[in-house]
Amino acid sequence: MKVYIEYVLIDNLVIDYLILYLTGKILKHKFKWVRILISCVLGASSTIALSLINISSELLLVFKLLIGLVLPLFAFKFKSFKQYLSTFFTFLSFTFLLGGACFALIGMFGSFNSNFSGYDASIPLGLMLIICAVLVKIVTSLTTLIYQKRDCNKFLAKATLTILGNAISFDGFIDSGNRLYDDKTGLPVIIVATSAFKGQNNNLLKEILKNPKKMAKNAHFISVSTLNGETKPMLVFEPDKAEFCYQNKTIQSKIMVGLTYRGFKDVINYDALLHPSLIGG
User: Fold this and answer.
1) Structural domain containing residue 240
2) What is the total count of domains within the chain?
3) Is the same domain home to 142 and 203?
4) I want to staple 170 with a disulfide (CB 3.0 to 4.6 A). Which of 108, 111, 196, 227 is the partner?
5) What is the residue-averaged pLDDT of the chain?
6) Domain boundary among 117, 151, 185
7) pTM for this entry
8) pLDDT at residue 192 greater than cutoff 60
């Protein structure tokens, strides 16, 4: 079997780059491309050197582990040893992830040499690199989504409105951009989607919409500007009681409820845009 060194070089340069990039992206390291490139060249050169010498599998594993310990040091700057360890184990985890994908592909299309440092030319190198790049894209996208959800969850509050003796509970997002106040009462307005009533009290919503001034306190229409610059009327009214649970604190506040038929699409689920004044914003 022939081992193609150029395959090993290109493969290791690109995959080391993908692993280091993924590690830096996930851990939010500030990094320079030059440092990552130097680290990739070091990793690829070491792999080539190991493929040219005859050593036992055990010793090979030790050398590769040492290389793995060194590569993050060239690629990133660390403020503490703890941060370095976190980066190393993250780097190691992604090495196993992408390495596992490569080994699976090699097992399907080619074969290994005796020390697992090279493979024959029957492997579609482009396919291998594409699969690794796709894995990196999937992991970064999922991580970004998780980070976004975590950040947004900090501003979620459980809202409970009492209207005509009926309690309606839903999740609300405290939106710093919601600076809407009712001109008539001077109270802050929370914007609630009609979907918040579904499954809890559909009849109450129907009664309010059918005869708002009779069924709801201080019911009237206000003009609201949309994102596209249009001005539309919105029905607002004052609930009998408004209670919000935010960060294990219960807040009672006098507010106006504005109804909208549009739901809120985001990385998290909620049925209302709450006013920042509820938390002193």
Assistant:
1) 154-279
2) 2
3) no
4) 196
5) 82
6) 151
7) 0.62
8) yes
